[in-house]
Amino acid sequence: MIRDLFLDHPASVGESFTEHFGVATRFGWRLTRGGLACMLHGFLPFAFKTAGSDTVRDLHAELVAKRAAARAAQTQMATVEYVI
Fold it and tell me: How far apart are CA 35 and CA 51, in angstroms?
């Protein structure tokens, strides 16, 4: 039960619990910062014109790259006969 709650998802994305905590927390702070910039932009249209879209673009690129690297590592491990 505890494993299901805390370890299965991080393992499914190729991270330990601690690594996943760090990545998710960093993403959350970046999203918060981008959201605050968007709210300020609503009030001050001249400020933070691209902050929201820049944040989303950067986080998406990071997530896609991380998935591709995890997929490549998994493929390599499946095709290697011996690991030394």
Answer: 8
Tens digit of each residue's pLDDT, the chain (84 residues):
777 888 888 888 888 899 999 999 999 999 999 999 999 999 999 999 999 999 999 999 998 888 887 777 777 767 766 666
Who's near 33: CB < 8 A, 6+ residues apart?
55
Domain coordinates in residue numbering, the chain: 2-79
Q: How many CB atoms lie within 10 A of CB 77?
A: 9
Claim: this prediction has a pTM higher than 0.85: no
